[in-house]
Amino acid sequence: MRSNRAKASLVSITIVAMALSGCVTTQQDRIGANDGTDACYQYRVALDSTGDYYAEDMLKGAAIGAGVGALTGALAGGNLKSALIGAAAGAALGTLGGYWNSKAQQGRDQAILGVMNDLDTENQNLNRTQIALDQLVNCRRAEIARVKADYKAKRIGKPEAEQRMALIRAQLDKDYAIASSINQNIVKRRDEYLIAADNIEPGSAEKIRTKTAVKAQTNKKKKAKQTTTASGAPASQVVQRTNTAFETSERINATTSSIQQIAQKEATLDAV
Q: Which end of the chain is less packed: N or C, by CB atoms within 10 Å?
């Protein structure tokens, strides 16, 4: 029995190590080296840097869940198979609903306050990501406009214009990969906050999800101000902050999707 438990403990440690090491990349791996040909490189760096916040927390939750699950399975079943089953269940817990479950252990009142404070930080980071993403997209569009203007004014010929456009399209593809990866982690975290909000105020998640992207864009500044000066019960403030996070994440998602459209429709001489 002791031998089986020792093996199961080793499995849990291995799973945690794999979860953490298997997803770690350097910034240069993600964004590529600066060879001097990318006028928007600084904005790509800024965007990528905002992604560290979302990735780190999500990975910790999954890894810890897997480790705890493996250990629990080992204690319950006393064998390696039970440990692996427990690890799978623990990993699922760590990535869906695990956030609220961990907060709820503190007691409902403390959990609500904890979620509210976390959402303040979340919204600050989401705003940083949106700003960085907007700056990158605007820079790419400015580069596209510059190539078209040079070509139209006959300062450059078609071969050079095509070459420069091809480079911009390749850069946009890389931008999309970076933004999409960040966006995926944002959605995972957003779902955790929706689960928390629904536990605090039942039915709130569905109401938040039905908000339209148009309304979110129209009320951007108004909503941001309301959440920073919100009054009323803490539960209501959690819902308001979750709504703000959801709306911002929707804008980030829409902007991320637009990168592909820019590459396909705007970064071409046919659109001159």
A: N
Q: Contact, 63 vs 46, CB < 8 A?
A: no
Per-domain boundaries in the chain: 1-37+58-95, 108-272
- Report DSSP state, residue 26: -
pLDDT in tens, 66-123: 444 445 444 455 555 554 544 444 444 455 788 998 889 889 999 999 999 999 999 9
Segment 211-219 long-range contacts (CB within 8 Å, at least 24 positions apart): 211/243, 211/246, 211/247, 211/250, 213/250, 213/251, 213/254, 216/246, 216/247, 216/248, 216/250, 216/251, 217/251, 219/247
Q: What tokens does 123 get?
A: 């919204």
Query: pLDDT for 118-176, tens place per residue?
Result: 999 999 999 999 999 999 999 999 999 999 999 999 999 999 999 999 999 999 999 99
Cβ–Cβ < 8 Å for 116, 238: yes
Q: 20 exposed, middle or buried (CB, 10 Å; 0-12, 13-18, 19+)?
A: middle
Residue pointed to by tokens 């996070």: 245
255, two tokens: 């902007």
Structural tokens at position 239:
């819902």
Closest to 268 (Cα-Cα) out of 174, 158, 177: 158
Sign of CA dihedral 229, 231, 233, 239: negative
Element (H, E) at 157: none
Give the relative orientation of helices 234-261 and 158-200 as an angle to the nearest 10 degrees: 160
Interaxial angle between packed helices 158-200 and 108-152, expressed in degrees from 0 to 180 and rounded to the nearest 10: 170
Give CA–CA dist 53/48, Å, rounded: 10
**Taking the complete model, does pTM exceed 0.85, yes or no?**
no
| Amino acid of residue 232 | G
Q: Token digits for 81? A: 């198979």
